[in-house]
Amino acid sequence: MKGLLARKLGMTQIFTERGTVVPVTVLEAGPCRVVQRKTTARDGYEAVQIGFSERAARRTTKPLTGHCKRAGLRPLRHLAEVRDAGEPELGATLAVDVFNEGQRVDVIGVSKGKGFSGQHKRHHFGRGPVTHGSHNIKQPGSIGSVDAARTLRGVRMAGQLGNRRSTVRGLLVVRVDPDRNLLLVQGGVPGSRNGVVLVRDADHGATL
Question: Which of 23, 37, 113, 204 is within CB 3.0–4.6 Å of 163 for a Cys-Cys bond?
Answer without folding.
Answer: 113
